[in-house]
Design goal:
Elements: E1 11-13, E2 20-29, E3 35-39, E4 45-49, E5 61-65, E6 68-72
Antiparallel strand pairs: 1-2, 2-3, 2-5, 3-4, 5-6
Length: 83
């Protein structure tokens, strides 16, 4: 990424496609624990595949790319957020 490029602190870019991954909070999880409804920092909700990350619970923050949670983020990451 060029020196003069600016991006949000919670954004990570995929080295394969250069698309951004974003931090989302899990609002609900379906019974099979493979799909959850997540919300981003702007309040947009979407269904996310959670099957690759173990130990995800409602309220957890996850890094999401292309509708797939890639990892669980530290729990205090958005404590000051106004969600």
């Amino acid at each position: 990424m060029p020196e003069n490029a600016h991006c949000a602190d919670d954004m990570t870019f995929c080295i394969t496609c250069s698309d951004a991954a974003e931090s989302m909070r899990v609002e609900s999880i379906q019974r099979d624990a493979a799909i959850g409804t997540c919300v981003d920092l702007l309040g947009h909700r979407s269904d996310v595949f959670l099957g690759l990350v173990s130990g995800v619970t409602v309220g957890a923050d996850v890094l999401v790319h292309a509708g797939v949670a890639l990892l669980k983020l530290p729990t205090d990451r958005h404590e000051t957020s106004s969600r």
